[in-house]
Every structure is written in C-alpha cells, then in structure tokens.
Amino acid sequence: MRRKFTINLSVPTGQKLKKKWRLLQKLVWVLCLVFGSWLVITTITLVSASSEPVDAFFVLGGSIRREIYIAQIAKQYPQIPILISHGSQDPCIKLIFQREFADLDNVWLEKCAGSTFKNFYYGVPILKRWRVHKVRLITSPTHLPRAKWMAQILLGAHGIWVEVEIVQEKGVPGNRESLIKTGLDVSRSLFWAGLSQIIQPQCKDVIQLSKVDMSAWQSRGFKCERQGNLGR
Questions:
Q1: 160, pLDDT greater than 70
Q2: Nearest-angstrom CA–CA distance, 169 and 139
Q3: I need a labelling partner for 50 at 20 to 30 A (CA). Which of 39, 99, 104, 211 fits?
Q4: What span, in angstroms and rounded, lies between the C-alpha atoms of 182 and 191?
Q5: Among 38, 82, 90, residue whose Cα is nearest residue 60
Q6: Could you read off the pLDDT of 7-29 as tens digits, one per residue?
C-alpha cells in the first residue's frame, strides 16, 4: 500500500507578517524622508521670502472697506498685482478704483470663492502662477485669527510668506467668529496644505478689472454697499 506524502512549501504565516512589517517600515521611512525634505526646503524658502519686498496683494472679500483701502494702496504701488477674492460686485470695485484714479490693469477679480477657505482654495493657485513669494493679505479684525492662521498654513505650504494688513470695519460686522468655526477651518487647511501640493483647483470665473463691462452692468442693474459712497 502506497502512502501519499504532501510537502508544505508555503512560507509560515509568521514570516509573511514579518516581511509585510518590514515593507511597511520602509514605506514609513521613505514618507518621513520626503516630508522632512519638503519641510526643510519650504522653511528655507519662507525665510528667504520674508526679507523680500511684497509682490502681490491678496484681498479677502466680504467688505467694501477692504476694496476702498486696496484702491488707495494701488495708487502707491501700481506695479504690484492685486487679487480680490469674491469681493463686491464687479462694477462697484471698478467705480472705487476709478474714483481713486488707480490702475485697473493690474487688478484681478476671482469670483468662485464662497467662504474664507475657498478664498485660499482658489487664490493660492493664481498666486503661484504669478510666481509670488511674499503676499500682503488684506482682511478685517472680524476675520482674525482664523484668516491669518489659514493664510500661514495654505500659503506657507507653497513657500509664500504672508504679511497681514488689517482694515477696520464700520458698523455691525456680517461675520461672526467662533472656536468651532476656527477649529474646523484650520483643520481642513492643514489637510489641504498637503493635498494642494498635487491638486491645483482652477477658478473659471476670473476677470481683469479693466475688462469689466460697465454698460452691461448698468443695463442689468447693480447695487453697492452704502459705505462705498458710490451713489448706487
């Protein structure tokens, strides 16, 4: 009578787990090395950018007072580009700049953002295309410290140094800050800071201020904030 012998050639389960564990350790080390290198390079870039002159103004929409302020600044620095993220209606901004006799060709209106996070979500790729290294962020006290922290995270992750310029508001502010709101926005900013190294959202609704068609807006009708004193 013949006996059948089976030879188990499979690798013991313990050895398989050890191989997987070693592979996982190597992967973690590689990721740590990549992250560490990126962090060092970004830090060096930021330190270098901090001593350079401002090469862009970034205005967070939400108050016509900020647009009045940046129009006055534009007269002093006509060579520096301005990005206004989801501000007042286009004709209102154009009237403000015309009243101040400020240059219109170096001002761009981004109209995709609907929140402070989206201001940076769409604004950062534009500033990167402009090869900006140091930006002056125009906002109000009612946006602090949330907007400042978000700017430092999201712009800093791309090697862009941030200076914050505060424009005082008049009347009752429309925005209300809270710890929950700040915590949520800062948390998703930290997450997006990494993801935005790969994904670059593009706003399809960006227009140069000089190309705003006032005739079309007048036929359509528009209304500006009373604080603008534009008679509209």
A1: yes
A2: 10
A3: 104
A4: 14
A5: 82
A6: 554 556 777 777 777 777 777 77
